[in-house]
Amino acid sequence: MSDYSTIVVGTDGSKSSMLAVERAAxxxxxxxxxxxxxxxxxxxxxxxxxxxxxxxxxxxxTDPAQENLDKAAEFAKTVGATKIETAVRSGTxxxxxxxxxxxxxxxxxxxxxxxxNSLTGRLLGxxxxxxxxxxxxxxxxxxxxx
Length: 146
Fold this sequence. Notes:
By secondary structure, the protein is an alpha/beta fold. The chain has 6 helices and 5 strands; from the N terminus they run E-H-E-H-H-E-H-E-H-H-E. It has one domain (6-142): HUPs (Rossmann fold, 3-Layer(aba) Sandwich). Strand 1 (6-10), helix 1 (15-31) and strand 2 (34-41) form a beta-alpha-beta unit. Helix 4 runs parallel beside helix 6. Mean pLDDT is 85; it is low at 115-125.
């Protein structure tokens, strides 16, 4: 296994995404890596409704996104991460995560498995499946939902 220096994890504020944050924070602590916690948001309800996938919680606006990030960062500290950054991006979760991964030259992207086994996920794709296909870094899909 290679050493990880920068780890990105996405959160939408859900319990499921916080399990991914927990795993990413523990890995960051073990490797003394920087943990970048990202959250995507939509500008308007109309923009959010254009997405066919509903496998993540819809975050509207920067304030709720920043609240999600603040909570996730505090939680990450409690499980051992010490170098924590946050990033909020407008757009779909996949677009936002890929942007954050590329900007930070991440070595590892951690996501939950929500949506990957649903019918919609199989037909239209899911956040974990899409980021795994698009990412140039290692991707860990954490079992966060049954």
